Each structure stands twice: as C-alpha cells, then as structure tokens.
Amino acid sequence: MNAFNVLMKKEFIHMLREYKAVWMPLVFILLGITQPIVTHYLPSIIKALSGGQGIMIDPNLPALKGAAVLASTLGSQFDQLGLMILVISMMGIIQTDKADGMLAFILTRPVKASSYIAGKIVSNFMIAAFSVAIGYIASTIYANYLFTNVPFSLMIPAFLLYLVWVLFIVTFTALISMICNGQGMIALISLVFLIGCRIIVNLNPVLDIINPASMSNHARTLLITGTISSHAVISLLVALFWMVLMFYVMNYWISDKKYNQV
Asked: How far apart are CA 90 and CA 255, in angstroms?
C-alpha cells in the first residue's frame, strides 16, 4: 500500500471518529430539503402572517419549475450555509497536524509532501462531494414532488460543474490551513475570500472567467435555462489552474518546511 493510500485511510478513520462522515451529509440533506419546502409554502406563510392584508402575491406570476428551485438550493443554501460548514469542518485539515507534530513526524518517513497533500485534499473532497450529492439528491426529490420534474440531463451536468467549485473550496481551505496557525484566522480568511468570490460573480465578464465561484453560477444557469455559457470551459480550465497552483505552493511550502517559520 503506497503512502497516498495509507494517508487516505488515516483521514477516513479520523473522519469516522469525529462523526464527520455522519453529521455532514445530514446537514446537507437538511439544507437541500429546506429550499424547496420554504419556496413552496412561502406564499401560505406570508398570507398567514399578514392575515391577508398588506402583502399581496401576484397571482399571475409564472409557476416555478423544479430545476429553478434546485438552482436556488445551490445558490442560497449550499453557497452560503453550506460553504461555511465546509470551511469550518476543514479549517484544521493541515493545521492540526502542524500543531501536534504529526506533520513533522510524517515527513521523517518515506512520504512525499505531494502524497500527504493529495491524501488530505482528496479524502476531504470525497466526504464534501458525498455530502453535497446527498443534499442535492434530497433537494431534487422535493423539487420533483412539490414543483416539476428536474430533467436528469440537466441535473447531472450541473452537479458536476458545482463539484469543481467544491473542490476549489477544499483546496483553498487546505492552503490557508497550511499557512496559518490559528483555526479562527483560517476560518476568517477562507470565508472572507470564498464568500467574496461568490459576491462578485456576474459583476464583470472578465472577472467571471478567472473567478472559480463562477462554476457555481454556470451550474445554476444550466439548471434554469437549460443551456451552458460558452465561457464555462474557460472558467473550468482557469479554476483547475488555480487549484494546481495552490497544490504547487503547498508542496513547496511543506517540502521546505516553511510551516516552521510561521
């Protein structure tokens, strides 16, 4: 068994001991079903709260489609609370190994820094992707039941586009976890940057190309319109470039033991 597989196994055992493999999927299921339920019953809730006075809902509004509701799940629930949960759950991804000396111990063994980083990122991405997938499926089931059926031909490609954004979240959090020592600082920097990326989406076409959060926007656009932007492939390549660059920086930083100088 090579070093990468050993480190992956170690990470999965650690996740099981911390029950991350249990609570994270449950949280995303809750987030996934919240959006279609709230969207469906919102008119009734507003009517009940206002007593039928003051607030009017236009009866001529077009009925929402299930795909649009699923898109709002990605944009509202997963890109806000979901993003925060991912960052907070992974802010110690490398920092804890630095703090307890495990990273220094691992590097005394015949283990390459690249294997260590890849094991961390891949294992945490797998649990994140599984959690998001479970929540996405739960949201799709409720959207199909309460609204209209979400075409399978849109659901899968949109999810794959969204996973690129999830992988960027995991990689960026790992990078900050390697550079910084305090978990509060790691969470703050990661959240400010990643939420900032989400906020500036659609502000400028050039920024959208280099902004990895645009992958989330491409996923939502595909669900709502049924078409994909011509810039999606370029955005995908740029997002992959950012992740490769971050991996290279982490590899250089750990190989030269610069984490001891912070």
From this structure: 22
